[in-house]
């Protein structure tokens, strides 16, 4: 009978020591996918490992930051362009609304503000108005107005609603404003610019091509309507010779 | 065959990636750019609008050095505001509790006479139009309002007639109240100082129908 002999086993003690499971450093991406810890085993929790932070930041890595940055830049540019262009692109600015109703370089006393007779929004019926659409492209325009009642005002607006000149009632009731063209043809022609003393009413000189002049006089009540109307009618807005003072 | 499918998948992945990037770009630019523009022009910011209770005032209105938001705001409304260098204009579209003003409700505006030599209170509809009414009353000014001896005044906003300073609101729907304080020819710094110290009237809801 043949004797059964076990095969000779290798000497495991002589083999190089294999690394224990868990002691091999995994790549950072694979560390996030590491198996959850088995309860009872003394292993470091996954949440404290750098792989967890990576997994939290993973959605952010998916975002194309260059696109976001470009979009924010585009947004800022569009915001600025839209804001600066808005006064020029507005469908019905005050100047456009009044253009048809007002002749050029003529002061027009507007009727009392009432429903259906309100030329512009938010124009208070507590005031009476005279308006002039000026155009100084051919000759300077001179505005004369009396601001003798408290609450009276004279304002000269550019076409985009910017007030170029504003005056309210003061101790000297008469006001004269000369509007010169902006292209420089009439520069130096005012008495002050020529070294002459202006002996007229308090005056001012501004430069503008087109716009609106608004004279506002407070409505004091029924008894004062005639006086208010006279003040509005007395105001003038006219083109004057270039060399005149 | 499998390689072809793999290539197609890669192509589609790249295509949708580019598509989504462009969608994000256009969406952020349009919604963010136009939206922020609209908000800044409509509601303003702390740099352009001064709030006191329900009243708001565009501090650089119709001034030579006004900011672009203020210019765009008034150009869009199509109005000619009184220059803020000679006056301060306040508009209220809410009552003192923050509720929108409606003609279906009655309100009282209570305040004290102002330091400004001339002022007016006007009621408009939501679009800035005067409200038709048989009494022909649209505004009170310092010349026309009844002020008590101690300087206190009350203006009633209601559909039906009220004793005292009554401004009819008819069936206008949304309301806006404009308060103009005109100081005359004062410096811009003085104008701003007065604006900081202003005690503006309160707007109180009395009842609604």
List the helices and strands and how they pair.
The complex is a heterodimer of chains A (245) and B (209).
Chain A: H1 28-32, H2 50-62, H3 65-89, H4 94-99, E1 108-109, E2 127-135, E3 141-146, E4 153-158, E5 163-168, E6 174-180, E7 203-207, E8 210-218, H5 225-234, E9 236-239
Parallel strand pairs in A: 6-7
Antiparallel strand pairs in A: 1-2, 2-8, 3-6, 3-9, 4-5, 4-8
Chain B: H1 2-42, E1 49-52, E2 55-58, H2 68-77, E3 87-92, E4 105-112, E5 118-125, E6 139-141, E7 152-158, E8 165-168, E9 175-182, H3 188-197, E10 202-208
Parallel strand pairs in B: 7-8
Antiparallel strand pairs in B: 1-2, 2-3, 3-9, 4-7, 4-10, 5-6, 5-9
Helix pairs in contact in B: 1-2
What would you say this structure looks like, in words?
The complex is a heterodimer of chains A (245) and B (209). With 245 residues, chain A is α+β, with helices and mostly antiparallel strands. Chain A has two domains: 23-87, no CATH class; 96-114 and 123-239, Immunoglobulin-like. Chain A is built from five helices and nine strands, in the order ααααββββββββαβ. Chain A has helices at 28-32, 50-62, 65-89, 94-99, 225-234, and strands spanning 108-109, 127-135, 141-146, 153-158, 163-168, 174-180, 203-207, 210-218, 236-239. In chain A, the strands form two sheets. Chain A has a five-stranded antiparallel β-sheet with strand order 1-2-8-4-5. Chain A has a four-stranded mixed β-sheet with strand order 7-6-3-9. In chain A, β4 and β5 (163-168) form a beta hairpin. Chain A is rod-shaped, with a radius of gyration of 42 Å. The mean pLDDT of chain A is 77. With 209 residues, chain B is of the alpha+beta class. Chain B has a domain at 51-66 and 83-208: Domain of unknown function DUF1214, C-terminal domain (Jelly Rolls, Sandwich). Chain B has helices at 2-42, 68-77, 188-197; strands at 49-52, 55-58, 87-92, 105-112, 118-125, 139-141, 152-158, 165-168, 175-182, 202-208. In chain B, strands 1-2-3-9-5-6 form a six-stranded antiparallel β-sheet, with no helix packed on it. In chain B, α1 packs across α2 (68-77). Chain B is elongated, with a radius of gyration of 25 Å. The mean pLDDT of chain B is 87. The interface between A and B is large, with 58 and 61 residues.
């Amino acid at each position: 009978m043949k004797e059964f002999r076990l095969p000779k086993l290798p000497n495991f003690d002589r083999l190089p020591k294999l690394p224990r499971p868990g002691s091999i450093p995994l790549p950072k991406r694979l560390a996030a996918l590491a198996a959850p810890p088995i309860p009872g085993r003394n292993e470091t929790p996954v949440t404290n490992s750098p792989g967890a932070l990576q997994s939290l930041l993973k959605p952010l890595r998916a975002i194309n930051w260059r696109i976001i940055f470009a979009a924010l830049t585009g947004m800022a540019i569009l915001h600025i362009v839209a804001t600066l262009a808005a006064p020029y692109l507005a469908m019905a600015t005050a100047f456009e609304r009044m253009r048809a109703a007002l002749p050029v370089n003529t002061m027009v006393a507007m009727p009392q503000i009432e429903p259906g007779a309100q030329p512009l929004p938010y124009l208070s019926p507590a005031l009476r108005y005279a308006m002039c659409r000026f155009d100084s492209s051919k000759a300077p325009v001179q505005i004369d107005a009396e601001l003798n009642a408290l609450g009276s005002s004279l304002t000269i607006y550019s076409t985009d609603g910017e007030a170029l000149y504003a005056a309210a009632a003061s101790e000297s009731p008469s006001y004269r404003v000369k509007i010169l063209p902006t292209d420089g043809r009439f520069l130096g022609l005012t008495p002050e610019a020529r070294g002459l003393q202006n002996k007229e009413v308090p005056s001012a000189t501004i430069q503008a091509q087109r716009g609106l002049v608004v004279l506002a006089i407070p409505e004091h009540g029924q008894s004062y309507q005639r006086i208010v109307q006279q003040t509005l009618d007395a105001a003038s807005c006219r083109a004057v010779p270039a060399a005149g003072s | 065959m499998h390689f072809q499918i793999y290539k197609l998948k890669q192509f589609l992945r790249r295509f949708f990636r580019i598509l989504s990037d462009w969608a994000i770009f256009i969406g952020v630019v349009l919604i963010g750019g136009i939206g922020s523009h609209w908000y800044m022009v409509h509601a303003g910011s702390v740099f352009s609008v001064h709030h006191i209770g329900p009243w708001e005032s565009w501090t650089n209105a119709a001034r030579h050095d006004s900011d672009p938001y203020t210019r765009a705001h008034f150009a869009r409304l199509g109005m000619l505001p009184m220059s803020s260098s000679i006056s301060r204009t306040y508009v209220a579209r809410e009552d003192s509790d923050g509720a929108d003003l409606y003609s279906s409700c009655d309100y009282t505006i209570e305040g004290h006479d102002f330091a400004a030599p001339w002022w007016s209170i006007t009621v408009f509809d939501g679009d800035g139009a005067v409200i038709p009414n048989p009494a022909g009353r649209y505004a009170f000014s310092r010349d026309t309002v009844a002020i008590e001896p101690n300087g206190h005044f009350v203006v009633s906003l209601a559909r039906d007639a009220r004793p005292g300073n009554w401004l009819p609101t008819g069936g206008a729907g949304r309301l806006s109240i404009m308060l103009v304080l005109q100081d005359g020819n004062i410096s811009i710094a003085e104008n701003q100082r007065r604006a900081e110290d202003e005690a503006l009237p309160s707007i109180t809801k009395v009842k609604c129908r």
